[in-house]
Amino acid sequence: MNKSRRTVTGLGVTLTLAGLLTACGQPGSAAAQTRPSSSTPAGSSTPATGIHMITNNGHRLAFHVTAGRKATIVLDAGGGEDSSYWAKIVPPLSRATGAQIITYDRAGTGDSDEVPGPWKVQNAVSDLKAGLDQLGVTGKVLLVAHSQAGEVATYFARQNPHRVGGAVLVDASLPDFYTDPQIARIVAVTTPQIEALKAQATLTKPERQLIATAALYTPMHHRYHQVTWPKSIPAAVIVSTGTPFEGSAPDMQHWRDAQADFAARAADRDLVVADSSHDIPLEKPDLVIQQIRTRLQAH
């Protein structure tokens, strides 16, 4: 893992989560612009395979659809990543399940527009909801969330429990992790790095996202620690042996404990350990697919 990737992962789990921790606002008007696929039957009510550009609150977001039937699976990547992160999973998952699969680029990543100002969870959840609405997804979805996307999934599920049939949380950022001592520890480590980024003459897209998210880090994480996952929504919890904090034994153990505590809080949550780094979807795609299939069969 190179230095910039490690910055996005190590800080991304902690810093790019910051704006996700407030209560979500109401989505603005949204309009969909699509490039339909020739494989979509005439008159079909399902979105075509391909990229669909959604406009929400003045910015455009790229939603990528693999057409299918029956269930809808939404794959959401972690901090600093875009929809291409799921490249190893989408084709075999489509063959194995026949489901409709949706990946997307959150604001500031991939083909989606950047949004100025602090990164806020109400914007992220509004974008996801707008995308599903404009694509005509009305049934329950299975949320698959990696790393930072765990917080998007948590707030989306809380606000829209009728739209979520289950979840696979892949080394996801969960509320249990963000105790006051852990927040203080992270702030102490990351503040100098953020200040160094601000001093640079030019910044990459991920670096701008890190700075935007750091602005609200502490209050957002205090708030997120009080949030609970809806008990009506079952979840598989996959935790890596490496965690996002390789090299820091206390942080690694706290991450693992938080995942186990979350899983133990309800009878319909399963804890699965992956012998891998934090990048479980890249290193153990078959394991992720297996857990998705299990959730689809159960519900």
Low-confidence stretches: 1-12, 14-34, 36-44
CATH T-level fold name: Rossmann fold
Order of SSEs: HEEEEHEHEHEHHHEHEHH
| Spatial ordering of strands, largest sheet | 1-2-3-5-4-6-7-8-9
What's the CATH class, please? Alpha Beta
CATH architecture: 3-Layer(aba) Sandwich
Specify the helix fraction band.
25-40%
| Gross morphology | globular
Number of distinct helices: 10
Annotated CATH homologous superfamily: Alpha/Beta hydrolase fold, catalytic domain
Domain AB hydrolase-1: 74-223
Region (Disordered): 26-51
InterPro entries: AB_hydrolase_1, AB_hydrolase_fold, AB_hydrolase_sf, TAT_signal
Signal peptide: 1-32
Descriptive notes:
Residues 36-50 have a biased composition (Low complexity). Residues 26-51 are annotated as: Disordered. This protein is α/β, with parallel strands linked by helices. It has one domain: Alpha/Beta hydrolase fold, catalytic domain (Rossmann fold). Helices cover 39% and strands 18% of the residues. The chain is built from ten helices and nine strands. The protein has a nine-stranded mixed beta sheet, with helices on both faces. Helix 5 (180-198) packs antiparallel against helix 7. It is globular, with a radius of gyration of 18 Å. The chain starts with a helix and ends with a helix. The relative contact order is 0.17.
Short recap of the structure:
The chain has 299 residues and is α/β, with parallel strands linked by helices. The protein has helices spanning 3-14, 90-97, 121-134, 149-159, 180-198, 205-214, 217-224, 249-264, 280-283, 285-298, and strands at residues 30-34, 50-56, 59-66, 72-76, 100-104, 141-146, 164-170, 235-240, 269-274.
